[in-house]
UniProtKB/TrEMBL annotation:
<dbReference type="InterPro" id="IPR009014">
    <property type="entry name" value="Transketo_C/PFOR_II"/>
</dbReference>
<dbReference type="GO" id="GO:0009083">
    <property type="term" value="P:branched-chain amino acid catabolic process"/>
</dbReference>
<feature type="domain" description="Transketolase-like pyrimidine-binding">
    <location>
        <begin position="1"/>
        <end position="174"/>
    </location>
</feature>
<protein>
    <recommendedName>
        <fullName>3-methyl-2-oxobutanoate dehydrogenase (2-methylpropanoyl-transferring)</fullName>
        <ecNumber>1.2.4.4</ecNumber>
    </recommendedName>
</protein>
<keyword id="KW-0560">Oxidoreductase</keyword>
<dbReference type="GO" id="GO:0007584">
    <property type="term" value="P:response to nutrient"/>
</dbReference>
<dbReference type="GO" id="GO:0003863">
    <property type="term" value="F:branched-chain 2-oxo acid dehydrogenase activity"/>
</dbReference>
<dbReference type="Pfam" id="PF02780">
    <property type="entry name" value="Transketolase_C"/>
</dbReference>
<dbReference type="InterPro" id="IPR005475">
    <property type="entry name" value="Transketolase-like_Pyr-bd"/>
</dbReference>
<dbReference type="InterPro" id="IPR033248">
    <property type="entry name" value="Transketolase_C"/>
</dbReference>
<dbReference type="Pfam" id="PF02779">
    <property type="entry name" value="Transket_pyr"/>
</dbReference>
<dbReference type="InterPro" id="IPR029061">
    <property type="entry name" value="THDP-binding"/>
</dbReference>
Length: 332
């Protein structure tokens, strides 16, 4: 997945001289996860460069560049570090098109590793996607595999509006399914680890059905897609697993079509339960599928606590917790 993200930036920089990449340690060092490795050597220090440790400065600079016609693809080293830049993101980047009556757009991409599962503790494991989905003018993307990561990142770079591109760091090297006691399968042995060379894009706002089923709909994104697939396999329940891929805009049609078919819905995300994006999905399912529901919508999510280092695998919504939720809705 690291290689797929890097390839998306490489392809975009080769096709368009206005695309620039910058952030903390992304130049010579190639990024803390090596997602930008080699880009500075290939495109030079004016198109791939390091910045001071100032997230507000990084995003503010990107907004100014975008207003003058460039297409910045910047990295926030961890999603946990985006808070100093939240004002720039929500008050400036998200509103430029609206406040200028369409005279200006803000074609920036903010890449940020998100989520836990790496023993990063409370300041390297957060999932802040819901803080962005509440803001009009932003788009929010969370890929679950290398193939989607490249296609969605290219689409994000080519989009005229700001895109928050959250990369689940636990998926960088393999499709982690929550069974932390087992060896991780590398992407090289997974069908979605096959990533074409060159340019291709995946439309932002279109979900994908990862596993067809008829008993219950599981709505997930990022790492939780693989956890949901593992839970369906472990329990033997005929679950249909939807990978949202894009939270904003949201592919509501795919969700509604699935829930109307199955009559049951479980929503899974790694972020804190209260005010998490799963609450929005549950509300939409209730609103659009009420007369087809056979059981209440159930959410499986992180605790309402800071991310605990010592109890990571209790906090992390694993296949056991998801499996119990599936059983619960099937018994209702």
């Amino acid at each position: 997945m690291i290689e797929a993200v890097r390839s998306a930036m490489d392809v975009s920089m080769a096709r368009d001289d206005d695309v620039v990449v910058f952030g903390e340690d992304v130049g010579y060092f190639g990024g803390v996860f090596r997602c930008t490795q080699g880009l500075q050597a290939k495109y030079g220090k004016t198109r791939c460069f390091d910045t001071p440790i100032s997230e507000s400065g990084i995003v503010g600079t990107a907004i100014g560049m975008a207003a003058y016609g460039l297409k910045p693809c910047v990295e926030i080293q961890f999603a946990d570090y985006m808070y100093p830049a939240y004002d720039q993101i929500t008050q400036e980047a998200a509103r430029i098109r609206y406040r200028s009556n369409g005279d200006f757009t803000c074609p920036i991409v903010l890449r940020m590793p998100t989520g836990g599962g790496i023993f990063g503790g409370q300041t390297h494991s957060q999932s802040p996607e819901a803080l962005f989905t509440h803001v009009c003018g932003l788009k929010v993307v969370v890929p679950s595999n290398p193939y989607d990561a490249k296609g969605l990142l290219i689409a994000a770079i080519e989009d005229p509006d700001p895109v928050m591109f959250l990369e689940p760091k636990r998926l960088y090297n393999g499709p982690f399914d929550g069974h932390h006691e087992r060896p991780v399968t590398p992407w090289s042995k997974h069908e979605l680890g096959e990533v074409p060379e060159g340019h291709y894009s995946i439309p932002i706002g279109k979900a994908d059905v990862r596993r067809p089923g008829s008993a219950v709909t599981v709505v997930a994104y990022g790492t939780m897609v693989h956890v949901a697939l593992a839970a369906a396999e472990d329990t033997g329940i005929d679950a249909e697993v939807i990978d949202l891929r894009s939270l904003l805009p949201l592919d509501l049609d795919t969700i509604v079509q699935s829930v109307n078919k199955t009559g049951r819905c479980v929503v899974v995300h790694e972020a804190t339960l209260t005010s998490g994006f799963g609450g929005e999905i549950a509300s939409l399912v209730q609103e659009h599928c009420f007369y087809h529901l056979e059981a209440p919508v159930v959410r499986v999510a992180g605790w309402d606590t800071p991310y605990p280092h010592a109890q990571e695998w209790d906090y992390f919504p694993g296949p056991g917790r998801v499996g119990r939720a599936l059983a619960e809705v099937m018994e209702t």
